[in-house]
Every structure is written in structure tokens, then in C-alpha cells.
Amino acid sequence: MILVTGASGYVGGAVLRRLSQGGHAVSAMVRNLGRAAEVEDAGAPIRIANYDEPASLERAFLGVDRLVFVASDGHARAVMRHHANVIDAAATAGVGHVIFMSIIDIEASSGFYFTPVYRDAERRLLASGMKWTILRCGLYADLILSHWIRPALASGEMALPVGDARVAPIARDDVAEAMAAVAAEGRDGTIHELTGSIACSFEEIAAAAARVFGRPIRYTASLPADYLAWAWGEMSDPWPHAFSSLCKSIEEGRYARVCGDVERLLGRPATRFEDFLMRTRPAT
User: Fold this and answer.
1) N vs C: which end of the chain shows fewer Cβ within 10 Å?
2) Distance of CA 146 to CAs 140, 141, 150, 201, Å?
3) What is the pTM of this model?
4) What pLDDT is recorded for position 284?
5) How far apart are CA 181 and CA 91, in angstroms?
6) Domain-located, residue 60
7) Rg of the Cα trace of the chain?
8) Count of structural domains within the chain
9) Rounded CA gap, 249 and 118, in Å?
10) Is residue 239 part of a domain?
11) Residue 16 CB contacts under 8 Å (≥ 6 apart), including other chains
């Protein structure tokens, strides 16, 4: 049996639906009954467990052959603790194979806020004795849209401290489809890198958004201090530091790499960024 954590979230929910529709024996893990209502349409059994309650995790993981582990989000210390609790509970419960969603920005030299969190989780997983598969995700196209393009549709300017860096955006739907494919196949001991098939400059990203949404948008390379000051005025902790350090990683070229693993897993290229934007455009 396959268990999907984070099933009430976007990626976890999409993985759950794909596996359920494919006829696989799959269950959903959510934090509480309120969240359970959000995944009932997938038609899969539901298990309740909390990342901060190891005993509940151990109960939820009993009888699980493959665990699709979509991590939580929030403060780095809490996420690191959640990772450790899930991996320890899975090993205790006898889970056979953990499929873990990590990040491509994993090098020790990175200053990204979440890099130490995911490095620690990967280390724990490899030392756990369980079979494992790791999917390292690039920069979400959905993040670029929601946090940088949509505000720019009103202002006309996308100001970021990333210089002339390039990124290879990956749609969350492609990530979910790849995770479902790995979970269905069950092959272990592999690290996949999930990126878009084209590395785009931010000038190209702004131009694509302008074409799709029919509004003028320009990219401006801002100063890191100016972006951080703006972020502190718009976001709650820890997100100003998280986004500022993400921009630094982007500027250092850590998200520019293009990998063909999505095509190898899905039999098709990753969704082009402009095609992704077209899907999000309101119907006219």
C-alpha cells in the first residue's frame, strides 16, 4: 500500500489523485478531520497523523509499503523536526520505501534558508536503512507566478535581486506527475532532478508574462537590501529571509541547471513556462 503525506496540499493531493485514478492501493495522510474533507474526492482511505506527534505517525505508517513524503512548510526548525519525525517513524513502523520530495538547491555552500533542512532530511533518509528515492525539485513556476508575476501585473515591474541569472522553472503539476510515476514503479536508490526543459532569464520571464496576460511588465535588477526591506513590509517571518536567500541562490546560478529527468520519467518534456502561464490565464 502507498501512503501520501501532505495529501491536503497541492502536490500531495495531485499525487494522491493520480495514484488513485491509476488503480493503485493508496491512502492519504492529513493532520486532522478538517483537512480530511479536502481529500475525500480522491476516493482513498484517510489516515490522521501530525508531524509533531511521532506516535500518530507510527500508527499511520503501519502496513505501508511505499511512503510518498511531501514535506511541511514554515519555520526551518519546525520543518527539520517534522522531517526527522517522519523518517524515524517510518523506519520504526517498517515502511519499505520512502519517496521524498527535496530541493535542487542542496549544496552545503548555499545560503538558502531551507537548504540545511533538506540536507539534513536526505542524510537521515540515506542512513535510515529503508529503501529511498529522492526527487530534487527546481524552482516552481507556480511560485514565480504567485509571488513575482501577479504583483507585477499591477505595478508593471518585477524587481528582484537576481542580476542576469537564469532559472529552469518546473510546474507543480509536473512534479506531482513525476512523484506518482516513481511511487507507482517503486524503483529505489535514485536521485532525480526535476527542472524545466529551458533555462529562462528574468527578462524572458517578464516578456512571457506580458504576452500571456496582455500587460506591460519589465524586469528590474534590484539591490538585495531594497528587496529585503520590501519583503519585511509585505511578509511575515520567516519569509523575508527565505525569499531573500532564495534570490541569492538564484543569482548564484543554483536554479539554472536543466535536467532531463522529467522527460525520462513522464515520456514527455517538462511544461514550457509560457505554456504554464497560458493554463493559468483567466478564460475570456
Assistant:
1) C
2) 10, 9, 6, 18
3) 0.95
4) 40
5) 23
6) yes
7) 19
8) 1
9) 15
10) no
11) 4, 7, 26, 28, 39, 42, 44
pLDDT tens digits, residue range 11-65?
999 999 999 999 999 999 988 776 666 677 667 888 999 999 999 999 999 999 9
User: Strands (DSSP E) along the chain, which ranges?
Assistant: 2-4, 26-30, 46-48, 66-69, 97-103, 131-137, 157-160, 166-167, 190-194, 200-201, 218-221
Q: Which domain holds residue 99?
A: 2-138+169-195+257-271
CB 60 within 8 A of CB 47: yes
CATH at 71 = 3.40.50.720
Helices and strands in the chain: count of H runs, count of E runs: 13, 11
Nearest to 254 by CA among 134, 55, 108: 108
Amino acid at 33: L
Question: What single letter denotes the amino acid at residue 47?
Answer: R
Task: Tell me the average pLDDT across 166-188.
Answer: 95
153 found inside a domain: no
Cell triple for residue 232?
519585511
